[in-house]
Amino acid sequence: xxxxxxxxxxxxxxxxxxxxxxxxxxxxxxxxxxxxxxxxxxxxxxxxxxxxxxxxxxxxxxxxxxxxxxxxxxxxxxxxxxxxxxxxxxxxxxxxxxxxxxxxxxxxxxxxxxxxxxxxxxxxxxxxxxxxxxxxxxxxxxxxxxxxxxxxxxxxxxxxxxxxxxxxxxxxxxxxxxxxxxxxxxxxxxxxxxxxxxxxxxxxxxxxxxxxxxxxxxxxxxxxxxxxxxxxxxxxxxxxxxxxxxxxxxxxxxxxxxxxxxxxxxxxxxxxxxxxxx
Length: 278
Prior knowledge:
about 280 residues, alpha+beta, seven-stranded mixed beta sheet, two-stranded antiparallel ribbon, 8 helices, about 45% helix, about 15% strand
């Protein structure tokens, strides 16, 4: 696990202190130091969990200061406070005008913070929030487990226990990834494959474009090895030949029967080029 660079706390704390100037002076005088200390504690904790946790904290902190700082400045002020508010704004502009380097750093901090917040949201939306690209993808969830500061997939034993004890899920299937060499030694091609429970295609409500997906009997020990191809692999390796179904291909030197080809829109798990029974 990779941590944020050394000295990062000092730089981020300085930047956070600069961001706090978005709040009115009376608010900073009352809460500024406490907010800065809280941010420093959160940074140290996030840094121990890795770069992603530190980035998430920075994005959340920048977003919080931007929204709440402006809200405080625009909030109705007690009678007689308008002059103090005007003086606060004049002081801020005077400080920026007299200190060009400080002005530049303030702009850079704000720009970097906004960019980081947008990047983090895009990353989280793609990795965690965006529905899986299958039929009824909004109803499909990917389960992980937390082990200390790390997030990891379930092993086979834990997955079996979870499957037997799950009461809130209508269906459940496990999968893992494995790379195979497709073809002979003269024309090899590395294929990123998914090994899945036999029912994965059923609960993702997906059918093969050509042929079929595998069924429970295909996962029984001793059954003939089978594989389902992705649309991308079907085009790239077999020239979109529809007669590939029921033919055999070599995967890691083993003869495996092609039973189906999935539509181009199917994408579970992401980037899989072929599927085999787990």
